[in-house]
């Protein structure tokens, strides 16, 4: 089942310390105090998600219809995600991973304790 940007928003804002702010292009973005984790794109069904380059490269080879990057993102730790084809469970896991990389230890501990 396809994901929507509203679902991305709900997932992201469910993590402690995540705020929605406008990116420098004026589009919605989600970040912690440490770093941005999700950015919207001009294409309504694509997001940019923070991810280590090595993990991104593996996903792009294994699932090129879902994950990709452009030359602009080649040297940045991020992946472009096609919301129309990504599975919600996969999206949730990747957003959690991005959040964990940007959250404080206290935020992670509090979130884990609340589950």
Overview of the structural elements:
This protein has 115 residues and is α+β, with helices and mostly antiparallel strands. The protein has one domain: Aspartate Aminotransferase, domain 1 (Alpha-Beta Complex). It is built from 4 helices and 6 strands; from the N terminus they run H-E-E-E-E-H-E-E-H-H. It starts with a helix and ends with a helix.
> Unreliable runs, pLDDT <50, ≥5 residues?
none
Shape: globular
CATH class: Alpha Beta
Order of strands, widest sheet: 1-2-3-4-6-5
Order of helices and strands: HEEEEHEEHH
**SS-based class:** alpha+beta
Number of domains: 1
Number of strands: 6
Q: Calculate the mean pLDDT score and round it.
A: 94
CATH topology: Aspartate Aminotransferase, domain 1
Per CATH, which architecture? Alpha-Beta Complex
In angstroms, what separates the terminal alpha carbons? 25 Å
Draw up the topology in text.
Layout: H1 5-13, E1 19-22, E2 28-31, E3 36-40, E4 46-50, H2 53-62, E5 67-68, E6 78-82, H3 88-102, H4 105-113
Antiparallel strand pairs: 1-2, 2-3, 3-4, 4-6, 5-6
Offer a few descriptive terms.
single chain; 115 residues; alpha+beta; Aspartate Aminotransferase, domain 1; 6-stranded antiparallel beta sheet; globular
What's the short version?
The chain has 115 residues and is an alpha+beta fold. The protein is built from 4 helices and 6 strands, in the order H-E-E-E-E-H-E-E-H-H. 27% of the residues are buried.
């Amino acid at each position: 089942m396809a994901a929507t940007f509203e679902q991305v928003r709900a997932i992201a804002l469910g993590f402690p310390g995540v705020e929605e702010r406008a990116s420098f292009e004026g589009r919605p973005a989600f970040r912690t105090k440490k770093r941005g984790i999700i950015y919207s794109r001009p294409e309504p069904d694509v997001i940019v998600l923070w991810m280590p380059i090595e993990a991104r490269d593996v996903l792009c080879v294994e699932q090129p219809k879902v994950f990709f990057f452009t030359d602009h993102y080649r040297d940045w730790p991020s992946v472009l995600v096609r919301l129309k084809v990504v599975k919600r469970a996969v999206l949730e896991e990747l957003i959690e991973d991005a959040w964990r990389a940007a959250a404080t230890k206290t935020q992670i501990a509090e979130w884990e304790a609340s589950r």
